[in-house]
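Z., the sequence and structure:
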Amino acid sequence: MSRLKDTLRSDLTDAIRGRDSVRAGTLRMVLTSVTTEEVAGTEARELSDDDVLKVIAKEAKKRREASTAYAGAGRPELAAKEDAELAIIETYLPAQLADEEIEALVAEAVAETGATGMPQMGQVMKAVQPRVAGRADGGRVAAVVKQVLSGR
């Protein structure tokens, strides 16, 4: 079993004992997503720490999008709930990259691939994604790649 999954289970037990319902509920949802990912596909498998991190990153993205949607719909109480869950989930993710760091990684990937314009965006994304791996949202990375390749 991955150490990260063990940590999540241990923290869930602590949250339940401490009667922290928001934390316990959030960790239950994350662990359910991890279990769902383990049994998805043709055969059950044990997720590595990297795979568990990807699941946690997906959950964080869901919370971000839901919070934005609720705020836009004039439901600040629901947006606040999503933000609280996101804060808990983010404690399990690696530190997010700053825009300057993403730009540097994209510049390296562009130099490596020899990309000259937007038709090579896929090549650049393929080269930069493993370096970013959970430390930045794909949308942020794609925006930087577009900016660099379009020459702005």
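The CA atoms of residues 99 and 105 lie 10 Å apart. The chain has two domains: 3-90, 99-149.

Let me know what you think.
H.
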